[in-house]
TrEMBL record:
<dbReference type="InterPro" id="IPR003423">
    <property type="entry name" value="OMP_efflux"/>
</dbReference>
<keyword id="KW-0998">Cell outer membrane</keyword>
<dbReference type="GO" id="GO:0015562">
    <property type="term" value="F:efflux transmembrane transporter activity"/>
</dbReference>
<keyword id="KW-0472">Membrane</keyword>
<keyword id="KW-0813">Transport</keyword>
<keyword id="KW-0812">Transmembrane</keyword>
<comment type="similarity">
    <text>Belongs to the outer membrane factor (OMF) (TC 1.B.17) family.</text>
</comment>
<keyword id="KW-1134">Transmembrane beta strand</keyword>
<dbReference type="GO" id="GO:1990281">
    <property type="term" value="C:efflux pump complex"/>
</dbReference>
<dbReference type="GO" id="GO:0009279">
    <property type="term" value="C:cell outer membrane"/>
</dbReference>
<dbReference type="Pfam" id="PF02321">
    <property type="entry name" value="OEP"/>
</dbReference>
<dbReference type="GO" id="GO:0015288">
    <property type="term" value="F:porin activity"/>
</dbReference>
<protein>
    <submittedName>
        <fullName>TolC family protein</fullName>
    </submittedName>
</protein>
<dbReference type="InterPro" id="IPR051906">
    <property type="entry name" value="TolC-like"/>
</dbReference>
Length: 447
């Protein structure tokens, strides 16, 4: 499945692409690696994931469903155990000449009062229902892992989006400080007569452009902070500072390793396998409808057509056999439907496995491209910084114009933004590969 095209940087940052609600879209924006020191309280991606998984209602809902299925499994298991009940009643029957009018009646008055013990001796459908309930518990647990992975995808996108905008702010603020210093130096040179008013106007224009970039990034950063705070159940004002984002260390794992890991840990595939097992059990349930059922009944009490007396209390026992003979094709059609359902589940898993492998192959190429872009952008940023420093010195020495300095500064700022964005894209591409293979990114927790 291909990623949708992004028309703007904001669309890319928002992560519009969807793959069974588990994908984290690659950011098409840029991010500067922070140059400020790390504070004592920093917020890592692992911290954000742990807090979100502990507080988000989506995970709690999935956990409640597991508890519900477990209770139903216990109830299905109890159906296989003996049951104790009380049967009591008094029946009066109309009589004629001393004889009851109903053939089934034993007398004009019947009294029953028994403690009955029902014991299923052979109940194949009940055994199949108990197994089906067990399979449904397993499916619910896999769906909980799927919900955790979905939450992790959303939090990862929100985390890197905030990192993007906060570090863009740091770029624009640093550029704003440099533009103000340049404007101050130009004003002094203009007063001294060594610079023209055109240079002063150009310096002011440079300052205005940097200020505009800062003004645009500020509300975006505030919005990204609110989103991450909501995802992690933090008040926006109390969200800790993010840990500085560094380029990924080491090379990518092999694509074969990721595919193998996905077949073992991807919750989507686990859910599909659990549904296949449940479909097999459902087929056995319908097949068991053709088998006999044997039960035993033990009772103690009284069952009499006369006035009950204490001496009439006694034990009673019975063994019953229920054998289906002919049902006009009802069982045959249900079995055929269950077989088709099982075949559909198996085909669905194969299709899902193909989708997972295709997704890993596509995202692996994206990760490789992100690593290559990171190296290229690092070189470009170094060259742009060297050009800016030389141009700035030449401008202050009076050898270059303000227009040349403005162009050099603009290229320098954009190169820094692009470099930082490449680092984020490389990090996020690896996080996407982790999600594709069914594990949480940058965290010790396994799904």
């Amino acid at each position: 499945m291909t990623h949708p095209p992004y028309k703007t940087r904001q669309d890319a940052v928002a992560g519009k692409g969807a793959w069974r609600c588990l994908s984290v879209c690659l950011l098409a924006g840029t991010l500067l690696l922070p140059s400020f020191p790390v504070s004592a309280a920093v917020f890592t991606l692992g911290d954000a994931l742990r807090r979100a998984l502990a507080n988000q209602a989506l995970v709690q809902q999935a956990q409640r469903v597991v508890a519900e299925k477990a209770a139903l499994h216990r109830a299905a298991h109890a159906d296989l155990l003996p049951s104790l009940s009380l049967a009591a009643g008094s029946i009066w029957t109309q009589t004629r000449n001393g004889q009851p009018l109903f053939v089934s009646a034993n007398g004009p008055r019947e009294v029953i009062g028994q403690i009955q013990l029902n014991i299923p001796l052979y109940a194949p459908q009940a055994y199949a229902l108990q197994t089906l309930a067990h399979d449904q518990v397993a499916v619910a647990r896999y769906q909980t892992r799927q919900a955790r992975l979905l939450v992790a995808a959303q939090v990862t996108a929100a985390y890197y989006r905030l990192a993007l905008w906060e570090n863009e702010l740091s770029v624009w603020r640093e550029a704003l400080g440099a533009a103000r210093e340049l404007l101050s130096a130009t004003q002094k040179s203009t007063q001294a007569g060594t610079r023209s008013r055109l240079d002063l106007t150009q310096a002011r224009l440079t300052l205005a452009g940097v200020q505009a970039g800062l003004d645009q990034a500020t509300p975006e950063a505030a919005a990204a902070r609110r989103v991450l705070a909501l995802q992690t159940d933090y008040p926006a004002s109390e969200l800790p500072a993010l840990v500085p984002i560094s380029p990924p260390a080491g090379g990518l794992p092999g694509e074969t390793v990721l595919t193998t890991q996905a077949t073992q840990a991807q919750p989507l595939l686990q859910v599909a396998e659990g549904e296949i097992q449940a479909a097999r059990t459902l087929l056995r349930y319908h097949q068991a409808a053709r088998l006999p059922m044997v039960a035993a009944l033990g009772a103690y009490g009284v069952d009499t057509a006369t006035a009950p007396r204490a001496g009439q209390l006694a034990w009673q026992g019975a063994v019953t056999l229920q054998m289906p003979i002919f049902g006009f094709g009802r069982n045959r059609n249900r079995i055929a439907a269950a077989q088709e359902h099982l075949a559909a589940m198996e085909a669905g898993k194969r299709a899902l496995l193909l989708q997972v492998r295709s997704r890993i192959a596509a995202d692996y190429g994206v990760a490789q491209a992100a690593d290559n872009a990171l190296g290229n952008d690092r070189t470009m940023a170094q060259e742009a910084q060297a050009v800016y420093e030389m141009t700035r010195k030449g401008y202050l020495a009076g050898a270059l114009s303000a227009l040349a300095l403005q162009q050099a500064e603009n290229h320098w700022v954009q190169a820094r933004l692009k470099l930082a964005g490449a680092a984020i894209r490389a990090r996020l591409a690896r996080a996407q590969l982790a999600l594709d293979s069914g594990i949480l990114p940058n965290s010790e927790e396994q799904p």
